[in-house]
């Protein structure tokens, strides 16, 4: 499902920068027709896959701004044990804040 949906432009222990594919990806065609946005659960899946995490509990997930085809977004990462605190931005505007526990 995530195949060819995104490209990692930068990755460090503190930040990930990701570019989404264009609107022809099946995720965007299905969600929603004629108004494609990235579903919140897919955003969590993308981040977990990049970090090689297995999410076992989502403590918080707040979605403020929609991510659209071709968007570039950055993730500011904080880790404490198995907990990830992730703040997501595009064009310096906060998109989301996600906190999850992983294995």
Please specify the SSE layout and strand pairing.
Elements: E1 6-11, E2 15-20, H1 26-30, H2 40-51, E3 55-63, E4 72-80, E5 83-90, E6 93-102
In short:
By secondary structure, the chain is an alpha+beta fold. It has a single domain, classed as Thiol Ester Dehydrase, Chain A, CATH 3.10.129.10.
Task: Walk me through what this model shows.
The structure is a single chain. By secondary structure, the protein is of the alpha+beta class. It has a single domain, classed as Thiol Ester Dehydrase, Chain A. It has 2 helices and 6 strands. The protein has helices spanning 26-30, 40-51, and strands spanning 6-11, 15-20, 55-63, 72-80, 83-90, 93-102. A 6-stranded antiparallel beta sheet has the order 1-2-4-5-6-3. A hairpin with a 2-residue loop joins strand 4 (72-80) and strand 5 (83-90). The longest helix is centred in the middle third of the chain and has 12 residues, at 40-51. The relative contact order is 0.23.
Summary tags:
2 helices, single chain, 103 residues, 47% strand, Thiol Ester Dehydrase, Chain A, alpha+beta, six-stranded antiparallel sheet
Principal-axis shape: globular
- Name the poorly predicted regions: none
Q: Can you list the strand order of the major beta sheet?
A: 1-2-4-5-6-3
Top-tier CATH class: Alpha Beta
CATH superfamily: Hotdog Thioesterase
Number of domains: 1
Structural class: alpha+beta
Level-2 CATH architecture: Roll
Task: Kindly report how far apart the N and C termini lie.
Answer: 22 Å
Please outline the major beta sheet: 6 strands, antiparallel
Strand content: over 45%
Average pLDDT across residues?
96
Number of strands: 6
Count of individual helical segments:
2
Helix content bin = 10-25%
Topology-level CATH name: Thiol Ester Dehydrase, Chain A
> What is the alpha-carbon Rg in Å?
13 Å
Question: Helix and strand succession?
Answer: EEHHEEEE
């Amino acid at each position: 499902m995530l195949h060819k949906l995104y490209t990692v432009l930068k990755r460090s222990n503190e930040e990930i920068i990701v570019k989404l594919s264009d609107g022809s990806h099946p995720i965007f065609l299905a969600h929603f027709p004629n108004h494609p946005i990235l579903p919140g659960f897919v955003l969590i899946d993308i981040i977990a896959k990049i970090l090689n995490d297995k999410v076992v509990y989502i403590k918080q997930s707040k979605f403020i701004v929609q991510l659209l085809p071709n968007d570039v977004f950055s993730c500011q990462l904080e880790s404490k044990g198995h907990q990830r605190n992730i703040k997501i931005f595009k064009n310096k505007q906060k998109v989301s804040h996600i906190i999850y526990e992983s294995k």
